[in-house]
Every structure is written in structure tokens, then in C-alpha cells.
User: Fold this.
Amino acid sequence: MEHTPASTTHRRIGVFGGAFDPPHAAHITLVRSAMTNLKLDELHVVPTGHAWHKARPLSPAQHRLAMARLAFSDMPGVVVDARETQRTGPSYTIDTLRELHLQWPRAELFLMMGEDQARTLTSWRSWQEVLRLAIIYVADRGDWNRTMPRFIAPKLYESRFRRLQMPHMPVSATDIRARIASRQDLGDLVFESVARYIDHHHLYQTA
Assistant:
């Protein structure tokens, strides 16, 4: 994809990182909501490489990248960005934001995340620099019956957080992997092309 030089334009760039193991309907809805509501020029979907914060091993990066491309590549303005899977060592969001900032120094960066990620943000590497480089959009799915309380931004950094409104979608990659392992129907939880890829490569066959 060709990019307009940063010296001639002011871009609005979204960043949505995650394992995408596998990408599912809630991921698609979040990306569509961000593209529409934030008027982004482009949104980078960034599958993580080595996830320092996850206890379980992820599926190989080539599979997660392939599934992400099947799920997102037909969406205008959405870029499946492989940079974190190409690094050695743990994946850190700050490294991705720094690289994007160097590439487009005049761009506004917007980082998308769920409430669970927002609650742990202060444990991330260089989290204060993350907040300096990007505005954080926390997915607001309108589900107030959860056991976890709603995320509240730290008082000192309130101006760096926003809410991204999206429909309530009670779906998770954990649930999808469990359904596949127990041979349950996935329905419309993942794109048909992603479901075919999972089946063809025998992913998530065991719990």
C-alpha cells in the first residue's frame, strides 16, 4: 500500500492490536465502529508476536496473520500489519506506536482496546509514553451486567481516554476455541473464510 508523505498531509491512524487467535465477529464490529466513528484514514490491525502478558502459547504467527487477512483485508482503509510478528522477543505496543510516529510524525494516533486491556494499561511497558503518543479508545459494548466494574480512566490522564460505542457482543476467542475443541457449531462468530482456514489447518482441535 502506498502512503502519502507525512510532510503533505495530516492523517488519522488507528491501531488495534491483539492475538487474533482467531479473529471474530466482535473484532470486526470494533474495527467497523472505529473506522466510521473516528473518521480514520486507516486502521492498522496488528497481530501480536510473542505476547508477554499471556500465560498460554499463541497459535503460530503465520496462521494468525492469515486469518486476520481473511477477516479484515476486504475492509476499506484497514491494514493487517505484520510488524510485531516480525520482531524478536516480546511484543510491546509502545514499539509499534514509536514506529508509526516516526513514519507519520504529523499523524494523530488512536489506540483501540477492550476494557480488560484498559484496566491493565499501567502495567504495560512505557505506558505513559503510550498515552503521550496515542489517544486511547476503550470499546464500550453497553453491557452493564458484567461482574467486572466499568473501566474508569486515571484522573491524571482522563484527557487521553475516549469511549468507542459499539453493540454488545458476548463473544470471545477463548469461547470460540472451546467450541471448536468440543466440535460445536460456530454460527456467525467468525467469517466463513476464517472457519474454513481453521478447519483446513486443524487449529484449536484440542482444548
Q: What stands out?
A: The domain at 10-166 is CATH 3.40.50.620 (Rossmann fold). The chain has seven helices and six strands.
